[in-house]
Write a structure and sequence with these properties.
The protein is α+β, with helices and mostly antiparallel strands. It contains 4 helices and 3 strands. The protein has a 3-stranded antiparallel beta sheet with strand order 1-3-2. The longest helix has 26 residues.
Length: 107
C-alpha cells in the first residue's frame, strides 16, 4: 500500500482502536498490523504528537514480561477528533468511490 495512504489513515486507526480499549504502543502496532502493514517506528512519533495535542492521557501499568508499559487512553477531545475524522473519512471514501465508478460526473 502507498506509504502516504498509510500515514493519512494511521491517526484514525489509532483513535478508533483507543475508542474501544486502552492500549500500549506495541499492542497498537499489533492490532493495526492485522489489517495494514506498518512498523513500530511509525506509531511512536504519532503517539507522542497526539498526546501533546491532548488527544490521549497516559498511565503506566506493571507488566509480567518486563518493565511497566505506557498505556494510552482517549480523552474527550480525542473522541471528538476521532468522530470528526471518521465523518471526513467516509465522505472522502464516498467521493473517491463515485469518481472510480464514474458517478456524479459533469457532462
Amino acid at each position: 500500500m502507498n506509504i502516504q495512504f498509510k500515514k493519512g489513515v494511521l491517526e484514525l486507526c489509532v483513535l478508533s482502536i483507543l475508542t474501544k480499549k486502552d492500549c500500549y504502543g506495541y499492542e497498537l502496532v499489533n492490532d493495526i498490523s492485522k489489517n495494514i502493514a506498518i512498523s513500530e517506528g511509525t506509531i511512536y512519533p504519532l503517539l507522542r504528537r497526539l498526546t501533546k495535542e491532548g488527544l490521549f492521557t497516559t498511565y503506566l501499568k506493571e507488566s509480567k514480561e518486563g518493565p511497566p508499559r505506557k498505556y494510552y487512553t482517549l480523552t474527550e477531545r480525542g473522541k471528538e477528533v476521532k468522530d470528526a475524522l471518521t465523518n471526513e473519512w467516509f465522505s472522502f471514501v464516498d467521493g473517491v468511490n463515485n469518481i472510480i465508478k464514474g458517478e456524479n460526473e459533469s457532462e
